[in-house]
Amino acid sequence: MRLFKAILLLMLVVSIIPTVMVGWLSVSHTRELLIRDAQELAQERVKQLRLKAESFLEDPTEMVVGLSSVPGGFFTLSRDTQRLHIASVLNQRPEVLALTVFGADRQRLPGLQAFAVHDMAPSAVAEHEERARALLDEGLTGVRYSDVVASQGGGGGGPVVTLAFPVGDPVQGYMAADLTLAGLRQMLAQERVGSTGFAYLADRHGRLITGGGDLGAVGDDVSKRLPLAHLLKQREGTPDTELFHVGNFGEGRDAVVSAYSVLPEAGWAIVSEQPVEHAYRQVETMERRILLGLGGAILVALVLAAIFSRNLTQPLKTFIATSLELARGKFGVEVHLKQKNELGELAQTFNYMSKQLMAYDMETRGLYESLEKGYLETIVALANSIDSKDAYTRGHSQRVGDVAVEIGRELKLTERELRQLQYGGILHDIGKIGIAENILCKQSRLTDQEMALMREHPAIGDAIIGPVTFLGPVRACVRHHHERWDGTGYPDKLKGESIPLLARIVACADTFDACTSTRPYQKAMPLEKAMEILDNLSGAQLDPKVVLALRAVLAQRGVRLEGHRQPVKLAS
């Protein structure tokens, strides 16, 4: 074994040291690279999301702004033609919910307001006009967007933004339109950032526009989220600068990898967040693969070392293991070696010796079984001699053994325990051989002194069978079959489950046979009467569980009673 361990250790050291060095170098050189790749992926994701968001916003905006570029000028057209152009925009772009034309004096022009009837309530139209006037009051030089609001029954239930712009140079009037961002909301909701990340849009004040995750409703303040707070701080000094940033925010379990950018036209921020533990999963995967590789290398080294060592040490190990089995009594075991050398001859000699020992063992076992049988027959004869002293107890010990076995079978005891019950039932009164016959066969009530002597028979029986080794498990039945469940029995005043189970079973079988046998002081009772008495003794003298098992035996299989050759059952 020392040689085998030395070879294994040498092979493992030779393989593990270079593998660990390569793994450490791999981790140290590639960890930073993988982290940078994860951040670049977040950066690219935000770029793509910004392009999509700009497209969602620019396409309907261009359609609306295109009204200012109609040939001849929008305000030179007839009122009917103007209405046709406005209706065309609403029909072609479902994102446009409402469109209103204002004069140079910033007053709405009669008849030049259109809205999606099925998507906007009258109150929503009034709110649209309010937002438009607020934009006009700021003094427009180009397209300007209002703060995003939640739609009132329109826009597919999504956020809505109002845009306004001047028409003509010099200004001939103004146009304002409501755009639904429902498509943008749907796009961001479907956008998956790994398995747990999400993206969202926020306005220049840090209020939520739309996005994935459980961030809240449109207009809720999300400026406390670390990436967005960082962006807003950056914009305090340079509000019109196009910002882009990617990095880690937060610490511990709340840390996220985030990238953000700004939509320049609307000033909105688009932010992508993903928990660090998921974003850098590639790093963990790499480390896990290196560990698996290291484990694989160790396993290969172990297998090679084992094969190499086995050819040197296996024959000796086989001899040692087989010799130990032989020493433990497994006679007949053989050593199987294919070598045609001195080890092979030694194996043949060992096998011959093992077979000879097995033959001697079988012969010894036969002698032991005969001796055990002789012991048992002798003691059974002694038990029968006790029964024969009193005509009223003839066959009592055998019946107690039979009833005890049936109870034990009902309680699902093993075959070994059932055999011990059989012996215990037969031998439970063996101690009465040491009781004077005038006391044992007395027809009248025993005196206190005589009763004290009679109560010594369990201890006497225990002393009788004590020297017989194979009857060791039976001693509990002999010594404790007069113990009581309530602890008032003898000789040791054991109580409840501290009384061995086999002794409790024998005690129940003994009491049952005493009730159903004819004695000087009573006649044999019917089964029903006997069980009534045992039920009364249940919990006081007898184990209730054992009494229930006896009742089940009597109801199902029955037992042989005094004077009956066939089993007798309880009446159903």
Automatic annotation (TrEMBL):
Transmembrane annotation, as ranges: 6-27, 290-308
GO biological process: signal transduction
UniProt keyword annotations, A-Z: Cell membrane, Membrane, Transmembrane, Transmembrane helix
Subcellular location: Cell membrane
Organism taxonomic ancestry: Bacteria, Pseudomonadati, Myxococcota, Myxococcia, Myxococcales
Domain of life: Bacteria
SUPFAM superfamilies per UniProt: HAMP domain-like, HD-domain/PDEase-like
Protein's name according to its UniProt entry: HD domain-containing protein
Protein source organism: Corallococcus carmarthensis
Domain HAMP: from-to ranges: 310-362
InterPro entries given in the database record: dCache_1 (IPR033479), HAMP_dom (IPR003660), HD/PDEase_dom (IPR003607), HD_GYP_dom (IPR037522)
Parts forming coiled coils: none
GO CC, one annotated term: plasma membrane
Domain HD-GYP intervals: 371-566
Lipid bilayer topology: Multi-pass membrane protein
